[in-house]
Amino acid sequence: MRNRLPLVVFFLSSLLLSSPISLAQEQSFAEWLQALREEARGMGISEAALASLDEIQPVERVLELDNSQPEFVQTFTRYLGLRVTSGQVNRGQELLQQHAVLLDQVRRRYGVQPHYLVAFWAVESNYGRATGGFGVLEALATLAYDPRRADFFRRELLTALRIIDEGHIQPARMSGSWAGAMGQLQFLPSVFYRYGVDGDNDGRIDIWNSLPDIFHSAANFLSQSGWRGDERWGREVVLPAGFDFSQTGTGTRKSLQQWRDLGITQTDGSPIPVAAGMEASIILPAGAQGPAFMAYANFRATMAYNPSTFYALTVGHLADRYTGSPAIQNMPENEQAMSVADVRELQELLNANGFDSGEPDGRVGRQTRGAIRAYQQNRGLPMDGYASMDLLQSLRN
Hints:
Structural class: alpha+beta
Distance between the termini: 40 Å
Largest sheet: 5 strands, antiparallel
Order of helices and strands: HHHEHHHHEHHEHHEEHEEEHHEHHH
CATH superfamily of the domain at 1-73 and 133-181: Bacterial muramidase
Number of helices: 17
Mean pLDDT: 92
Number of strands: 9
CATH class of the domain at 1-73 and 133-181: Mainly Alpha
Strand order of the largest sheet: 5-7-8-4-6
CATH topology of the domain at 1-73 and 133-181: Helicase, Ruva Protein, domain 3
Strand content: 5-15%
């Protein structure tokens, strides 16, 4: 999940003495690890599983990645372009045919359509080819020893030990990302433990190597997150002239008939299909000048997997492309990335003008988008809540 644990204190290795984590730690890593062992024993985890901690040491690279910030905030154009290519579409179509029998079995059990499962697989791990090169136990121990999010990662580490203890994976083969997301699905240990399924009935849940386990587990997660097997994720739409952009975003839902009555159409100008009981939100990943999408319940289920609109739109669009749908029709031209420093300046200027965006951190979150909307309303601008260089220039002036 992947990535999806989007921090700000830089790792200063030159200041470290005996511990590669922090001078401020009250316990050495060895003392901390011994306390963790005692807690795990109290949970009933076996000595054999605890032996997997014997050679564990903190990994400096994990904290470097945890603390690093990108120089630029990725645009929707860039995000989508890296993940939806002709090669990825062709590969996904081939895999859909190759694993059609298995994927249909999964669909009949969980109601998740095959082209969506393969799209998740693609975006999470490039069809299993990019699962991360870190030992999960070392990565989680590093993050659990670091004080900033110690409790969260300590729980994940204890769950990883339980997974080993139950025989699902050998410690040396428990590989994943620097944040402990595991296997071809990039499940954190807690997600694995709650949603993992032994799809091939061999007594183990193996999301590293077993495609039945991988597809059953992903479909189980989505099914329990509200996936609807008789619906699509959403669609690209065209907004009418004079549309009220304050109604965009996942926080606003209306029936399809209500959106239709407001003049929203499909990209070819035809009315949007209406189904009883379905609600949708309007998503603008690149602001008022970019494409607009009508997002249904399956879009929200996708965001349970990764709470990023870019991610959810990319998974949905890639799935559409497998089935022959065209590329997005109204992608922005020359979409300009903002640097982290640009976003921080934007937040500072919003605050200075009385629009509370919270503590400036260079990241566009809900509070910053709300402040942008308030500023846009005050200035008579489209209230799309979108952070852009044009908006920054407006604030500078």
